[in-house]
Protein backbone atom coordinates (compact mmCIF):
# COMPACT_ATOMS: atom_id res chain seq x y z
CA UNK A 1 0.00 0.00 0.00
CA UNK A 2 1.39 3.41 -0.94
CA UNK A 3 2.27 5.83 1.80
CA UNK A 4 0.21 9.05 1.87
CA UNK A 5 1.89 12.33 1.01
CA UNK A 6 1.81 13.50 4.63
CA UNK A 7 3.37 10.27 5.94
CA UNK A 8 5.88 10.99 8.72
CA UNK A 9 8.25 8.34 10.01
CA UNK A 10 9.31 7.62 13.54
CA UNK A 11 12.72 9.19 14.26
CA UNK A 12 13.95 5.95 15.85
CA UNK A 13 12.49 3.45 13.38
CA UNK A 14 12.06 4.68 9.78
CA UNK A 15 9.83 1.69 8.96
CA UNK A 16 7.17 3.04 11.33
CA UNK A 17 4.87 6.00 10.84
CA UNK A 18 5.22 8.71 13.47
CA UNK A 19 1.93 7.72 15.11
CA UNK A 20 3.18 4.13 15.37
CA UNK A 21 6.22 4.98 17.51
CA UNK A 22 4.38 3.54 20.54
CA UNK A 23 5.20 0.07 19.17
CA UNK A 24 8.89 0.55 19.98
CA UNK A 25 8.17 0.57 23.72
CA UNK A 26 5.03 -1.56 23.78
CA UNK A 27 5.07 -4.44 26.30
CA UNK A 28 2.79 -7.06 24.74
CA UNK A 29 2.92 -9.46 27.68
CA UNK A 30 2.07 -6.79 30.28
CA UNK A 31 -0.81 -5.49 28.14
CA UNK A 32 -2.14 -9.02 27.67
CA UNK A 33 -2.02 -9.69 31.40
CA UNK A 34 -3.95 -6.49 32.20
CA UNK A 35 -6.64 -7.27 29.63
CA UNK A 36 -7.03 -10.87 30.80
CA UNK A 37 -7.29 -9.89 34.45
CA UNK A 38 -9.93 -7.27 33.70
CA UNK A 39 -11.91 -9.73 31.60
CA UNK A 40 -11.94 -12.33 34.38
CA UNK A 41 -13.02 -9.71 36.92
CA UNK A 42 -15.87 -8.49 34.73
CA UNK A 43 -17.15 -11.99 34.04
CA UNK A 44 -16.94 -12.98 37.70
CA UNK A 45 -18.96 -9.93 38.77
CA UNK A 46 -21.86 -10.50 36.38
CA UNK A 47 -25.18 -11.29 38.05
CA UNK A 48 -28.61 -9.89 38.83
CA UNK A 49 -27.66 -6.35 37.80
CA UNK A 50 -26.88 -7.58 34.28
CA UNK A 51 -30.15 -9.49 34.03
CA UNK A 52 -32.12 -6.48 35.30
CA UNK A 53 -30.42 -4.33 32.68
CA UNK A 54 -31.29 -6.83 29.94
CA UNK A 55 -34.93 -6.78 31.08
CA UNK A 56 -34.89 -2.97 30.98
CA UNK A 57 -33.62 -2.98 27.40
CA UNK A 58 -36.23 -5.62 26.50
CA UNK A 59 -38.94 -3.37 27.93
CA UNK A 60 -37.71 -0.45 25.82
CA UNK A 61 -37.59 -2.63 22.70
CA UNK A 62 -41.04 -4.12 23.33
CA UNK A 63 -42.45 -0.63 23.94
CA UNK A 64 -41.21 0.40 20.49
CA UNK A 65 -42.88 -2.70 19.05
CA UNK A 66 -46.16 -2.08 20.89
CA UNK A 67 -46.41 1.54 19.76
CA UNK A 68 -45.16 0.90 16.22
CA UNK A 69 -47.16 -2.23 15.44
CA UNK A 70 -50.19 -0.81 17.24
CA UNK A 71 -50.36 2.27 15.01
CA UNK A 72 -49.09 1.00 11.67
CA UNK A 73 -52.53 0.44 10.20
CA UNK A 74 -53.88 3.96 10.62
CA UNK A 75 -51.71 5.78 8.12
CA UNK A 76 -48.24 5.77 6.64
CA UNK A 77 -46.06 7.88 8.92
CA UNK A 78 -42.40 8.29 9.82
CA UNK A 79 -42.84 7.95 13.61
CA UNK A 80 -44.54 4.56 13.35
CA UNK A 81 -41.93 3.32 10.88
CA UNK A 82 -39.11 4.59 13.11
CA UNK A 83 -40.52 2.74 16.14
CA UNK A 84 -40.81 -0.53 14.20
CA UNK A 85 -37.34 0.04 12.74
CA UNK A 86 -35.83 0.59 16.20
CA UNK A 87 -37.54 -2.54 17.56
CA UNK A 88 -36.10 -4.60 14.69
CA UNK A 89 -32.67 -3.00 15.13
CA UNK A 90 -32.29 -3.59 18.87
CA UNK A 91 -33.71 -7.12 18.74
CA UNK A 92 -30.73 -7.92 16.53
CA UNK A 93 -27.87 -5.73 17.70
CA UNK A 94 -28.59 -5.87 21.44
CA UNK A 95 -30.83 -8.75 22.45
CA UNK A 96 -29.86 -11.45 19.95
CA UNK A 97 -26.28 -10.27 19.48
CA UNK A 98 -25.19 -10.43 23.10
CA UNK A 99 -27.28 -13.49 23.98
CA UNK A 100 -25.94 -15.48 21.02
CA UNK A 101 -22.41 -14.61 22.15
CA UNK A 102 -23.12 -16.10 25.59
CA UNK A 103 -23.34 -12.79 27.44
CA UNK A 104 -26.05 -14.16 29.74
CA UNK A 105 -25.09 -17.85 29.88
CA UNK A 106 -23.87 -17.73 33.46
CA UNK A 107 -25.89 -14.92 35.02
CA UNK A 108 -29.42 -15.43 33.67
CA UNK A 109 -31.60 -17.82 35.71
CA UNK A 110 -33.60 -18.96 32.64
CA UNK A 111 -31.10 -21.23 30.93
CA UNK A 112 -33.75 -22.71 28.65
CA UNK A 113 -33.96 -19.47 26.68
CA UNK A 114 -31.24 -16.96 27.56
CA UNK A 115 -28.32 -19.16 26.57
CA UNK A 116 -26.21 -19.18 23.42
CA UNK A 117 -27.12 -22.82 22.67
CA UNK A 118 -30.84 -22.18 23.11
CA UNK A 119 -31.70 -18.67 22.00
CA UNK A 120 -33.37 -18.51 18.55
CA UNK A 121 -31.86 -21.80 17.33
CA UNK A 122 -32.97 -25.39 16.93
CA UNK A 123 -36.43 -24.82 15.42
CA UNK A 124 -38.48 -22.41 13.31
CA UNK A 125 -40.56 -21.66 16.40
CA UNK A 126 -37.53 -20.52 18.41
CA UNK A 127 -36.39 -18.35 15.50
CA UNK A 128 -39.86 -16.80 15.28
CA UNK A 129 -40.16 -16.15 19.03
CA UNK A 130 -36.61 -15.09 19.92
CA UNK A 131 -35.12 -13.35 16.89
CA UNK A 132 -36.88 -13.26 13.55
CA UNK A 133 -34.90 -11.39 10.92
CA UNK A 134 -33.44 -11.79 7.43
CA UNK A 135 -30.47 -13.68 8.87
CA UNK A 136 -30.91 -17.26 10.05
CA UNK A 137 -29.66 -17.29 13.70
CA UNK A 138 -27.47 -20.39 13.19
CA UNK A 139 -25.93 -18.71 10.15
CA UNK A 140 -25.29 -15.51 12.08
CA UNK A 141 -23.57 -17.50 14.83
CA UNK A 142 -21.26 -19.19 12.32
CA UNK A 143 -20.42 -16.04 10.38
CA UNK A 144 -20.23 -13.43 13.13
CA UNK A 145 -19.44 -15.21 16.39
CA UNK A 146 -16.91 -17.49 14.77
CA UNK A 147 -15.37 -16.22 11.58
CA UNK A 148 -15.58 -12.46 12.07
CA UNK A 149 -14.54 -12.31 15.72
CA UNK A 150 -11.58 -14.66 15.38
CA UNK A 151 -10.33 -13.47 11.99
CA UNK A 152 -10.81 -9.75 12.57
CA UNK A 153 -9.42 -7.63 9.71
CA UNK A 154 -7.66 -10.60 8.14
CA UNK A 155 -8.47 -11.66 4.59
CA UNK A 156 -10.55 -14.48 6.10
CA UNK A 157 -12.78 -11.97 7.89
CA UNK A 158 -16.15 -12.23 6.10
CA UNK A 159 -17.02 -8.66 7.15
CA UNK A 160 -13.85 -6.97 5.90
CA UNK A 161 -15.29 -3.95 4.10
CA UNK A 162 -12.20 -3.18 2.03
CA UNK A 163 -12.20 -6.69 0.53
CA UNK A 164 -15.95 -7.08 0.12
CA UNK A 165 -16.27 -3.79 -1.76
CA UNK A 166 -13.21 -4.25 -3.99
CA UNK A 167 -15.36 -4.15 -7.15
CA UNK A 168 -16.85 -0.79 -6.19
CA UNK A 169 -13.47 0.54 -5.04
CA UNK A 170 -11.88 -0.28 -8.40
CA UNK A 171 -14.87 0.62 -10.57
CA UNK A 172 -14.01 3.17 -13.25
CA UNK A 173 -16.83 5.62 -12.48
CA UNK A 174 -17.08 8.95 -10.71
CA UNK A 175 -17.17 9.25 -6.93
CA UNK A 176 -20.71 10.59 -7.24
CA UNK A 177 -21.88 7.36 -8.86
CA UNK A 178 -20.13 5.35 -6.15
CA UNK A 179 -21.86 7.38 -3.45
CA UNK A 180 -25.23 6.63 -5.05
CA UNK A 181 -24.35 2.93 -5.05
CA UNK A 182 -23.47 3.10 -1.33
CA UNK A 183 -26.72 4.91 -0.45
CA UNK A 184 -28.68 2.17 -2.23
CA UNK A 185 -26.67 -0.48 -0.35
CA UNK A 186 -27.44 1.23 2.95
CA UNK A 187 -31.17 0.74 2.32
CA UNK A 188 -31.03 -2.96 1.38
CA UNK A 189 -27.81 -4.45 2.76
CA UNK A 190 -29.32 -6.78 5.39
CA UNK A 191 -31.26 -8.88 2.87
CA UNK A 192 -29.05 -8.19 -0.14
CA UNK A 193 -25.66 -9.00 1.45
CA UNK A 194 -25.81 -10.12 5.07
CA UNK A 195 -28.53 -12.74 4.84
CA UNK A 196 -27.10 -14.79 1.91
CA UNK A 197 -23.51 -14.37 3.08
CA UNK A 198 -24.15 -15.54 6.65
CA UNK A 199 -25.97 -18.57 5.24
CA UNK A 200 -22.94 -19.22 3.02
CA UNK A 201 -20.70 -19.18 6.10
CA UNK A 202 -22.99 -21.67 7.86
CA UNK A 203 -22.90 -24.05 4.90
CA UNK A 204 -19.14 -23.56 4.56
CA UNK A 205 -18.70 -24.44 8.25
CA UNK A 206 -20.78 -27.60 7.81
CA UNK A 207 -18.82 -28.39 4.64
CA UNK A 208 -15.50 -28.20 6.48
CA UNK A 209 -16.71 -30.17 9.50
CA UNK A 210 -17.75 -33.02 7.22
CA UNK A 211 -14.23 -33.10 5.76
CA UNK A 212 -15.33 -32.25 2.24
CA UNK A 213 -12.82 -30.39 0.05
CA UNK A 214 -13.65 -26.93 -1.26
CA UNK A 215 -14.92 -27.24 -4.86
CA UNK A 216 -12.26 -26.36 -7.47
CA UNK A 217 -12.25 -22.72 -8.49
CA UNK A 218 -14.27 -21.60 -5.46
CA UNK A 219 -12.91 -18.85 -3.22
CA UNK A 220 -14.48 -19.51 0.21
CA UNK A 221 -13.68 -15.96 1.37
CA UNK A 222 -15.68 -14.38 -1.46
CA UNK A 223 -18.95 -12.84 -0.30
CA UNK A 224 -22.26 -14.23 -1.57
CA UNK A 225 -24.97 -11.65 -2.25
CA UNK A 226 -28.35 -11.68 -3.96
CA UNK A 227 -26.50 -10.62 -7.10
CA UNK A 228 -24.61 -13.94 -6.95
CA UNK A 229 -27.91 -15.72 -7.61
CA UNK A 230 -28.11 -14.20 -11.09
CA UNK A 231 -25.56 -16.79 -12.23
CA UNK A 232 -27.47 -19.66 -10.62
CA UNK A 233 -26.90 -21.73 -7.49
CA UNK A 234 -23.89 -21.02 -5.27
CA UNK A 235 -21.17 -23.57 -4.54
CA UNK A 236 -22.66 -24.32 -1.10
CA UNK A 237 -26.43 -24.08 -1.51
CA UNK A 238 -29.13 -23.71 -4.13
CA UNK A 239 -31.15 -20.55 -4.60
CA UNK A 240 -34.33 -22.44 -3.72
CA UNK A 241 -32.83 -23.79 -0.49
CA UNK A 242 -31.88 -20.29 0.61
CA UNK A 243 -35.21 -18.79 -0.39
CA UNK A 244 -37.31 -21.47 1.30
CA UNK A 245 -35.27 -21.79 4.49
CA UNK A 246 -34.04 -18.25 5.14
CA UNK A 247 -35.48 -15.50 2.94
CA UNK A 248 -39.15 -16.24 2.17
CA UNK A 249 -40.26 -17.12 5.73
CA UNK A 250 -39.25 -13.67 6.95
CA UNK A 251 -40.55 -11.86 3.87
CA UNK A 252 -43.98 -13.50 4.05
CA UNK A 253 -44.53 -13.59 7.82
CA UNK A 254 -43.07 -10.19 8.76
CA UNK A 255 -44.45 -8.11 5.91
CA UNK A 256 -47.72 -9.83 5.00
CA UNK A 257 -48.87 -12.13 7.84
CA UNK A 258 -47.99 -9.83 10.77
CA UNK A 259 -50.36 -7.03 9.63
CA UNK A 260 -53.33 -9.40 8.95
CA UNK A 261 -55.23 -8.32 12.12
CA UNK A 262 -55.66 -4.91 10.50
CA UNK A 263 -58.04 -6.45 7.96
CA UNK A 264 -60.47 -7.21 10.79
CA UNK A 265 -59.73 -3.96 12.66
CA UNK A 266 -60.46 -2.10 9.43
CA UNK A 267 -63.79 -3.88 9.06
CA UNK A 268 -64.73 -2.85 12.60
CA UNK A 269 -63.77 0.78 11.98
CA UNK A 270 -65.23 0.91 8.50
CA UNK A 271 -61.87 1.40 6.78
CA UNK A 272 -60.51 -0.65 3.90
CA UNK A 273 -56.97 0.80 3.84
CA UNK A 274 -55.59 -0.37 7.20
CA UNK A 275 -53.91 -3.57 6.01
CA UNK A 276 -52.09 -1.80 3.18
CA UNK A 277 -51.11 1.06 5.51
CA UNK A 278 -49.54 -1.50 7.83
CA UNK A 279 -47.68 -3.18 4.96
CA UNK A 280 -46.38 0.18 3.74
CA UNK A 281 -45.17 1.12 7.23
CA UNK A 282 -43.37 -2.21 7.54
CA UNK A 283 -41.53 -1.65 4.27
CA UNK A 284 -40.65 1.93 5.23
CA UNK A 285 -39.38 0.62 8.59
CA UNK A 286 -37.28 -1.90 6.66
CA UNK A 287 -35.47 0.92 4.87
CA UNK A 288 -34.99 2.80 8.15
CA UNK A 289 -33.63 -0.22 10.04
CA UNK A 290 -31.20 -1.03 7.23
CA UNK A 291 -29.80 2.51 7.34
CA UNK A 292 -29.72 2.50 11.16
CA UNK A 293 -27.93 -0.86 11.26
CA UNK A 294 -25.53 0.15 8.50
CA UNK A 295 -24.38 3.17 10.49
CA UNK A 296 -24.00 1.19 13.72
CA UNK A 297 -22.39 -1.94 12.23
CA UNK A 298 -20.36 -1.19 9.09
CA UNK A 299 -18.09 1.58 10.52
CA UNK A 300 -17.04 -0.63 13.47
CA UNK A 301 -13.89 -1.83 11.70
CA UNK A 302 -13.52 0.41 8.64
CA UNK A 303 -11.57 3.62 8.18
CA UNK A 304 -8.16 4.87 7.14
CA UNK A 305 -7.05 4.58 10.77
CA UNK A 306 -8.08 0.91 11.12
CA UNK A 307 -5.48 -1.81 10.67
CA UNK A 308 -5.40 -4.98 8.56
CA UNK A 309 -3.33 -8.09 9.30
CA UNK A 310 -1.58 -10.66 7.13
CA UNK A 311 -1.66 -13.78 9.30
CA UNK A 312 -4.09 -15.36 11.72
CA UNK A 313 -3.44 -15.44 15.47
CA UNK A 314 -4.36 -17.57 18.47
CA UNK A 315 -7.69 -16.65 20.10
CA UNK A 316 -7.20 -14.71 23.34
CA UNK A 317 -3.46 -14.32 22.75
CA UNK A 318 -1.54 -11.06 22.99
CA UNK A 319 -1.82 -10.50 19.24
CA UNK A 320 -5.54 -11.20 19.45
CA UNK A 321 -6.09 -8.51 22.08
CA UNK A 322 -3.95 -5.96 20.22
CA UNK A 323 -5.92 -6.55 17.03
CA UNK A 324 -9.28 -6.08 18.71
CA UNK A 325 -8.17 -2.62 19.84
CA UNK A 326 -6.41 -1.52 16.66
CA UNK A 327 -9.05 -2.81 14.24
CA UNK A 328 -12.14 -1.61 16.15
CA UNK A 329 -13.59 1.77 16.97
CA UNK A 330 -15.84 2.98 19.78
CA UNK A 331 -18.63 5.52 19.37
CA UNK A 332 -20.24 7.97 21.81
CA UNK A 333 -21.28 6.07 24.94
CA UNK A 334 -22.22 6.21 28.60
CA UNK A 335 -26.00 6.33 29.09
CA UNK A 336 -28.64 3.69 28.37
CA UNK A 337 -30.40 5.97 25.86
CA UNK A 338 -27.24 6.71 23.88
CA UNK A 339 -26.20 3.07 24.00
CA UNK A 340 -29.71 1.88 23.05
CA UNK A 341 -29.72 4.01 19.91
CA UNK A 342 -26.28 2.63 19.00
CA UNK A 343 -27.46 -0.94 19.62
CA UNK A 344 -24.68 -1.21 22.21
CA UNK A 345 -22.30 -1.52 19.25
CA UNK A 346 -20.60 1.65 20.45
CA UNK A 347 -18.55 -0.58 22.81
CA UNK A 348 -17.00 -2.42 19.89
CA UNK A 349 -13.47 -2.55 21.32
CA UNK A 350 -14.66 -3.96 24.64
CA UNK A 351 -17.00 -6.39 22.91
CA UNK A 352 -14.23 -7.76 20.70
CA UNK A 353 -11.87 -8.16 23.64
CA UNK A 354 -14.47 -10.24 25.54
CA UNK A 355 -17.35 -11.29 23.25
CA UNK A 356 -19.14 -13.25 25.98
CA UNK A 357 -20.01 -10.40 28.35
CA UNK A 358 -23.32 -8.64 28.96
CA UNK A 359 -24.29 -5.16 27.77
CA UNK A 360 -24.00 -3.82 31.31
CA UNK A 361 -20.46 -5.18 31.60
CA UNK A 362 -19.42 -3.26 28.50
CA UNK A 363 -20.66 -0.03 30.04
CA UNK A 364 -18.56 -0.76 33.12
CA UNK A 365 -15.50 -1.86 31.19
CA UNK A 366 -15.08 1.03 28.73
CA UNK A 367 -13.32 3.52 31.04
CA UNK A 368 -11.15 0.72 32.41
CA UNK A 369 -10.10 -0.42 28.93
CA UNK A 370 -9.31 3.17 27.97
CA UNK A 371 -7.12 3.47 31.09
CA UNK A 372 -5.23 0.27 30.18
CA UNK A 373 -4.68 1.53 26.64
CA UNK A 374 -3.34 4.86 27.94
CA UNK A 375 -1.06 3.00 30.35
CA UNK A 376 0.48 0.95 27.53
CA UNK A 377 0.41 3.65 24.86
CA UNK A 378 -1.83 1.73 22.44
CA UNK A 379 -4.33 3.88 20.49
CA UNK A 380 -7.98 3.64 21.58
CA UNK A 381 -10.10 5.25 18.86
CA UNK A 382 -13.46 6.72 19.84
CA UNK A 383 -15.41 8.98 17.47
CA UNK A 384 -18.91 10.12 16.61
CA UNK A 385 -20.85 7.52 14.59
CA UNK A 386 -21.56 10.00 11.76
CA UNK A 387 -17.85 10.76 11.35
CA UNK A 388 -17.09 7.03 11.36
CA UNK A 389 -19.80 6.36 8.77
CA UNK A 390 -18.13 8.87 6.43
CA UNK A 391 -14.76 7.17 7.00
CA UNK A 392 -16.27 3.75 6.29
CA UNK A 393 -17.86 4.99 3.06
CA UNK A 394 -14.49 6.43 2.00
CA UNK A 395 -13.11 2.89 2.26
CA UNK A 396 -16.07 1.45 0.35
CA UNK A 397 -15.70 3.81 -2.61
CA UNK A 398 -11.89 3.71 -2.74
CA UNK A 399 -11.29 7.29 -1.62
CA UNK A 400 -9.21 5.95 1.29
CA UNK A 401 -7.53 2.69 2.25
CA UNK A 402 -7.02 0.87 5.52
CA UNK A 403 -3.59 0.57 7.13
CA UNK A 404 -1.47 -2.56 7.21
CA UNK A 405 0.01 -3.36 10.60
CA UNK A 406 3.83 -3.20 10.45
CA UNK A 407 4.94 -6.65 9.32
CA UNK A 408 7.96 -6.93 11.61
CA UNK A 409 5.83 -6.29 14.68
CA UNK A 410 3.08 -8.62 13.50
CA UNK A 411 5.65 -11.43 13.26
CA UNK A 412 7.29 -10.48 16.56
CA UNK A 413 3.96 -10.52 18.41
CA UNK A 414 3.04 -13.90 16.92
CA UNK A 415 6.41 -15.29 18.09
CA UNK A 416 5.77 -13.96 21.60
CA UNK A 417 2.35 -15.64 21.52
CA UNK A 418 3.90 -18.94 20.48
CA UNK A 419 6.43 -18.80 23.31
CA UNK A 420 3.70 -17.91 25.79
CA UNK A 421 1.72 -20.95 24.64
CA UNK A 422 4.78 -23.17 25.13
CA UNK A 423 5.22 -21.82 28.65
CA UNK A 424 1.55 -22.33 29.37
CA UNK A 425 1.79 -25.97 28.43
CA UNK A 426 4.91 -26.47 30.50
CA UNK A 427 7.04 -27.33 27.50
CA UNK A 428 9.82 -24.77 27.94
CA UNK A 429 12.31 -27.10 29.55
CA UNK A 430 11.61 -29.84 27.01
CA UNK A 431 12.17 -27.45 24.13
CA UNK A 432 15.41 -26.09 25.61
CA UNK A 433 16.67 -29.61 26.25
CA UNK A 434 16.18 -30.53 22.61
CA UNK A 435 18.17 -27.47 21.56
Notable features of this structure?
435 residues, mainly alpha, two-stranded parallel ribbon, 2 strands, 1% strand, disordered N terminus, disordered C terminus
What does this structure look like?
The structure is a single chain. This protein is an all-alpha fold and 435 residues long. Helix content is 59%, strand content 1%. It is built from 18 helices and two strands. The chain has helices at residues 28-44, 48-71, 78-100, 124-130, 137-150, 161-164, 166-170, 175-209, 239-257, 261-269, 274-297, 318-326, 336-341, 348-353, 359-376, 385-397, 407-424, 428-434; strands spanning 307-308, 403-404. Strands 1-2 form a two-stranded parallel sheet. Helix 2 (48-71) runs antiparallel to helix 3. The chain starts with 27 loop residues before the first helix and ends with a helix. Residues 1-12 and 430-434 have low confidence and may be disordered.
Q: Radius of gyration, rounded? A: 23 Å
How large a portion of the residues is in β-strands, by DSSP E?
Answer: under 5%
What is the subunit organization of this protein? single chain
Q: Uncertain runs with pLDDT below 50, 5 residues or more?
A: 1-12, 430-434
Q: How far apart are the first and last residues' alpha carbons, in Å?
A: 39 Å
Number of helices: 18
Q: Kindly state the mean pLDDT as a whole number?
A: 93
Give the strand tally: 2
The helix/strand class is mainly alpha
- What's the overall geometry? globular
Order of helices and strands: HHHHHHHHHHHEHHHHHEHH
**Lateral strand order in the biggest sheet:** 1-2
Question: Main sheet, how many strands, which sense, barrel?
Answer: 2 strands, parallel
Overall helicity: 55-70%
Amino acid sequence: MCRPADFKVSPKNPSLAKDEAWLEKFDLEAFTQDIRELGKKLEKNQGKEDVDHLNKMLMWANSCAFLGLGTMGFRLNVVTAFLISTWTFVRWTMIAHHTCHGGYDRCHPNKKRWHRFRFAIGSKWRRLCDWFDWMMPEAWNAEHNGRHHYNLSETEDPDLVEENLVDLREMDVSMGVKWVAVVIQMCIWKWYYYSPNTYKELKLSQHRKSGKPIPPGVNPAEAVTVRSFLSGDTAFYSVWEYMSVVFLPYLIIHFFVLPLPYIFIGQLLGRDDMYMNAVKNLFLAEIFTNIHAFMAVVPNHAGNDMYRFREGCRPHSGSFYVRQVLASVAFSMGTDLIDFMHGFLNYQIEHHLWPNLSMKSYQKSAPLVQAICRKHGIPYIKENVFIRTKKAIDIMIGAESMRWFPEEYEKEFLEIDAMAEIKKRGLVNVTLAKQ
